């Protein structure tokens, strides 16, 4: 069983070149699968077809290919290049590095299956009584004088059947959601998307959780708001309450933000902050009265950035601005979606999923959480456009401020 | 701008039907993209082509489609069905449920874009001065008398550009690795794969970490070995040492396996167990001498199941059977890969990645870990065939024993 | 600098024995810290005092201790026991296993600090020109003839200063929240607590998230309700909606619960289920009308178990029974807290934290989640009594049903 | 049943004051538990005793306390302060905020248990037919005219029995390992520890995993080495191989570090890099030959920083400098431990646990990982001194460089 790739390009349909080539293949008993079929829409763009061929033996394949060639079919029957190892434990420069998919090499007219299939090895080839054999060879097992495959010519890799899609390719790091990718690049990406959205007159929606305050990152978010990078804020009672607690009392959920230590009776601080705002009647009133002098909510009020604080059953208080009814809160959020080009979701599963529910898929969405599960939950609930960054909100916000020179 | 889907089936290439339809479309100024192109390999299987058409207006589209129809092209220009809501807050039965992709409806010859795009809503339609308009309508906003779309006819959904692949479809729960899927189904799946492998004369490789012992699940693994379901065991010093500790002293890393509490001086237990086996010279000798009377390693030795204990830098002791050199251990593992049909990787990132490195992609591989990160790491390192189960090893092993009636 | 532990017991205060011993120590220049001070409340119970002594040298210590002894002070000045290794790489049976805390041994009147401090080693002792020296010795470095410490006598371990509390002890597996502990033991523990609560006439509160349905575990929860083990249910729209979806349509968030595969148009199923219940007016009505024939909500209604469905901003629909206002929902939950003895929180961070907020600390609380972060969040918000199980809800519920023979 | 706290200070033992007070309490039928007992070691430091008293009624308690007072016992019988709410939904400023522990208030000689125990509420008090009653009152339920407790006077909080230790205190954020704490503070803390260690002539050990390279953070680690902040490096084959891959080919595990995208045939890059170093014979030789011009390993070699590359079974190649035998690698690591004052463990569970195994508890140890599980594993294996930072290595290293002005 040998396989080959056959390419056709040109005006294949009008002159029915494709039909004729397929007839030739059928006649020779060579099976084919279409791997690519790109029809040329205009006369100056050719139709391109790639076929994956399977023949019972190399001779049949060769004859069928030669017969196809008269119609302009392009194929390769190149053979592998072998290089002798010059020292123990070292592969020749340019060595072919294996995948874990079934692999054949083409050598002297033979198609030889590589034995002991294993990724990240060289391919060692030897002649055994006139028949070629090939095996994977881990680097440390190379011996001087071994003959090893170099380059890609003459190597045929067959993905597992379930992997036989157009885009099947062996690679590492294919998971979108991983804590091991360079985050800085993705934050730059988000910054560019924000700049582009602003240039196009679109708005930027920020959805945030209280960890932004707990982690000491609220000043960075406030900066983004003050500098005009954020147009709407969606959050809950907790983000606003701890932001105000931090401004009034220097703590977040009782943790001193300067030292990271627990503050005496600190667990009552957010309640005291909420209580004072309730007395004032609203966050805006409390700012007016001088009770709040900085932070995220202060930045929103001072710069006229609208916010929706949606309530939940775990709220203390809550702050007077919180919409406690979930369905009314959804409607309040809906009223702000139109015109949004970029949405940043930071450190909140509840509000991110709720916002994802009402966002068109065309909105560039970045979901930042220290837990990969949050990102997975978001896309599992239909917000497939979300690009996940598994990282600290503290890192994200400081880097984003730097990128935007905010 | 209106879009339509056109399907062609039959002997499209030999008679060049396809070429002729494409000529018609070009002549009418209708653009097309190939969405599916399945060439019939044998005369009894038709070639199937699906085209995504884009026309400047509905009239052009209609004319082009009618001209194509003479060549056997199938198309639909069905219109939406509207049903009046009979009560507030309730959609009509059979309502069309929206996605977050750009959506048009076809009504009275008009293609109308749905406004306020949002997933999980109905589509409300109204006539505004002779022009139809349509908007998403959340369930709670329905009012009796509203006219809403029912079914799929006449609704056109356009995935975001980057999503335009053949398999693009709006859905939930698309992540393979998620802690929210029914695990029992996947464990049944693994059990069936093991049974099938055994029937086909293939072998089952088990790769395990010490959490199997810590969690009290070693008896289940021992059972699988005793009943013949496991043919090879790959593990490290820790699994074997704690398995022997549990058998000798009733604890695992000092935690009493009957009570879950800490045992006095329990942190020395594994060292005492290792020390005794070192004195005996090997695990087999220790079993011979009656020092070990049960557990996973005992099951291996008594049933002749080969094991490779690969060392690592965090090993205490180690046990005399441990291969301390990583490269020699790799080679020892390689010697057992041939003929393996199913590989179970349970609660060990190190050994799972190491085994994945030397497994062909054709081996059915199940990776079980309580942490999604481990599964992501495995597939990020090239073992794409791995099916991840984010769950407890304790749950997996008890359920697997039950499924295999072991 | 040598340290010793001194114990006193008896009627130490009335006769001022303690004062006299402390005078002796002061007179000899030996410093002391109180490690334990248990005053006998009644005449038949002695007062017990443990002191940690520090003297500049062993001779001073010896003299002070002997002078104290006349008042009944108990002390030990036992020396280490040494045993010769009889073979390479193996410690003597009963070997002293080191911690990573500063360690001295007492030998021939000398207090010798152990060099190369490292956990999980033996202690090798040798005489170097009349002075004893001691070093940690990893197992593999033991040579036949080496002299090694056996047992605990004469070994003094000094925890790091910040660790000097009464309960400081070297051990493994000290984290309460870990995925590596035997879960089955903890589930048995929960089952016993439930049985005890029921016997004492207390009530059992169950707080659950939709993953219970997604994972196929709803039948187990329904069983617990039917068998009378659950007295109140707190949940959100999602658990109820997917439970009803599963009963009506066989899917949960569109995933077929029998096969684990995606169902065509499955993402609309929960909306259809919610819509039908909205038409019926309530879950109870829908059951009455025969629309729902099983599952968790059916069990509640049929067995008169009260439930509070608290709304959130990510709700679709919602179901008519959902209390959409968060503060009203809190109040509805509060109305059910009195008399609760055990609370099970399964697979929901939002509802668990909200319930934890209103529970007295005396309620036995078990928090089950596949993500350790959820448990950490709960205790970080004041619900310190919560016992965390990092595991699947599917495993927890099946095992709990088995334990309760439900 | 009423409780009170009694404090004694002075020369309690010599004059047996303590014994006399205890006699008085016994005589009145008041039970006591010692909460604190701090013996004054020197004549100028008093002995301090805190007792927790329980009497059957307030009158008994009062008499016993007055009788004790003649010996200098200090006690308080202050009563609660009540303030009227001046508006609905707002507590009086300075309100007492509840915990979830059993609580009594002392008012007009009565000790009244607070009903409906719940954290984060006020305490509302009313007179019901001459008997006082008290209940928790959530903020939103306050009505103008309600009388609420202000401050701490007269409020008695009884922790749950199992919580009755000296340090029991109600608080939030008590978990050491949490992703919600301010990381920047902890990184500053680590920077100060490093500076202090260097000033004291101690050495800094860095233990790192390959995610440092994957995340694009290798330049920051290289900077720390070049600037003299790191004295020893422990790592595996992967960190070194990908560091060299990044330097030679611009990728890490095939991911382009500038763009974050996959590189064509990138999965072979690390093998090519390893192979070239194997040909050179060592990393130092490869640098000498100009094959490597920057990065972490280059910084080590150029600045004479020793490194131990410990092998594992998942290694490709490996690099010639890797010690493939785990036990030999442990010994090589041991040889560098002496004199280490600070250890940074970044993004590697395997090497962190292995290093933790051989570190004295006195070494300041910081463990940085994006996964809380890694930190939990480390402390569960005995390295209790480790301070965990659940964050990105990228964030940690950039912030550490900034803190150290490196």
Could you characterize the architecture of this molecule?
4 copies of one chain form a homotetramer. Chain A is α/β, with parallel strands linked by helices. Chain A has 3 domains: 2-75, LOR/SDH bifunctional enzyme, conserved domain (Alpha-Beta Plaits, 2-Layer Sandwich); 81-160, Beta Barrel (conserved putative lor/sdh protein from methanococcus maripaludis s2 fold); 183-403, putative lor/sdh protein like domains (Rossmann fold), CATH 3.40.50.10690. Helix content of chain A is 32%, strand content 25%. The first copy, chain A, contains 13 helices and 19 strands. Chain A has helices spanning 17-28, 58-69, 183-199, 211-214, 218-226, 237-249, 269-280, 283-288, 296-302, 326-334, 349-358, 372-380, 393-403, and strands spanning 2-10, 31-38, 47-55, 74-75, 81-84, 102-107, 110-115, 122-128, 131-137, 147-150, 155-158, 203-208, 232-236, 251-252, 255-256, 307-310, 340-346, 364-369, 386-390. A 6-stranded parallel beta sheet of chain A has the order 16-13-12-17-18-19, with helices on both faces. In chain A, α1 runs antiparallel to α2 and α6 (237-249) crosses α7. Chain A starts with a strand and ends with a helix. In chain A, 56% of the residues are buried. The model of chain A is unreliable at 160-177 (pLDDT under 50). Chains in contact: A-B, A-C, A-D, B-C, B-D, C-D. The interface between A and B is large, with 64 and 64 residues. Chains A, B, C, D: Residues 190-400 form the Arginine dihydrolase ArgZ/ArgE-like C-terminal second subdomain domain. Chains A, B, C, D: This is ornithine cyclodeaminase. Chains A, B, C, D: Pfam families: ArgZ-like_C_1st, ArgZ-like_C_2nd, Saccharop_dh_N. Chains A, B, C, D: It is an enzyme of class 4 (lyase).
